[in-house]
């Protein structure tokens, strides 16, 4: 991989300086998301994401980079942000579980979205976007970003065990064998969840073979992972 000082996480990145943040408080009120409907089309599961959106908006508006990263290149700043994000994983204190609820997954996902926002705010091109474009980009890439980083973190923590034992980290400090894991969809699936379970089982198998195994073999450094995540973000957002 090329030297990190000449790499940019975005084609034609203009410079490595950090522009001043644009301050424009925009409180958001009462935003709910329809997750499931019944046979008549009536909502039966609603998620209130008002607090999440306000937290993200606050970070977009008020983010100020730490002084110790001001002189770094764009990629090195994003590596720094990734290392901060990964501090939530404690490889010497990981609990293995056999079940997890969708509520817990979503709750953790909300925290991760805020961390992904902070990661992207270390990128000059992202910071130069209009607020609505930043939010749209986050909406389009956060699932893929989170998924790739989770597999990359698992590969870094467990090495070959990830593939041999089919291990994946679920939430900070929690891991599981994907073949034995049971996900409680009760609050989010109107009808029986057998179809969802079958779909997720096949998906997890493919992810382990097509993403997990190569990541273990590549043994990526943190700067290489940061580059990969940045490129993924702009590639997905550009579609």
TrEMBL record:
Residues 67-239 form the NR LBD domain. Keywords: Receptor, Transcription, Transcription regulation. Residues 1-23 are annotated as: Disordered. The keyword Lyase does not apply. PROSITE patterns: NR_LBD. InterPro entries: C.elegans_Orphan_NR (IPR051152), NHR-like_dom_sf (IPR035500), Nucl_hrmn_rcpt_lig-bd (IPR000536). SUPFAM superfamilies: Nuclear receptor ligand-binding domain (SSF48508). Pfam families: Hormone_recep. This is NR LBD domain-containing protein. It comes from Caenorhabditis japonica.
